[in-house]
Amino acid sequence: MSHHEHRAHAPVHMTFAVLTVSDTRTLETDGTGRSLAEALEAAGHTVAGRRVVPDEAEGIAAGASAWLLDDRVQVVIVNGGTGISPRDVTPEAVRPLLDKELPGFGEAFRALSFQDIGSAAILSRALAGTASGKVLFCLPGSTGGAILALDKLILPEAGHLWRMLHPEAGEDSGSTAP
Question: Does residue 150 carry a pLDDT above 50?
Fold first, then answer.
């Protein structure tokens, strides 16, 4: 089946979870997580929930794992902790959870980001992969970078990726394209 055929049978409306990694934000002050949730809902998706965890590998892994175990969730978005400061450990915390990494996501994100912020794009360690039959994305904590990834990469491909993980899913398994 071609990617066009996969996309034609991919879910149009999906359920996402948003995990913010930050030592300084709370659920109330988490502008990036809130912006992601609002953009997802505006695009017709459901957000099962949002959480904020500190920049600590154990907490990040536990937070991501909780969403991966949630039967409602198809896609997990983690934002924050993908830079190079000593406290930025999101990739290290999430990578062991992945069944498969999608290196093209980070490459494409950095190329898009370069167009906006120039050479500082190389500081991003954004990544994506599959885990427990779900799709997981790790994005920067900056609202602009996270929304760039959402608009240009995640929203166009999330349903396609999920469908590739679930080829057995019938036409009635979620909301699919007409």
Answer: yes
The Cβ of residue 171 has, within 10 Å, a number of other Cβ atoms equal to 8
For residue 60, being part of any structural domain is answered with: yes
Q: For residue 78, give the amino acid letter.
A: V
Q: What are phi and psi of 18, to 5 degrees?
A: -120, 120
Torsion over CA: 23, 132, 95, 122 (sign): negative
Whether 154 is covered by a domain: the verdict is: yes
For 81-103, b/e burial (b = at least 16 CB within 10 A) is bbbeeeebbbbebbeebbeebbe
Specify the number of domains making up the chain. 1
Domain hosting 137: range is 3-166
Distance CA 177, CA 160 (A): 11
Q: Are 16 and 75 in contact (CB under 8 A)?
A: yes
At residue 32, φ and ψ (nearest 5 deg) are -70, -50
Question: Domain with 161 in it: what CATH number?
Answer: 3.40.980.10
Q: What is the pLDDT of residues 62-96, one digit of tens each?
A: 999 999 999 999 999 999 999 999 999 999 999 99
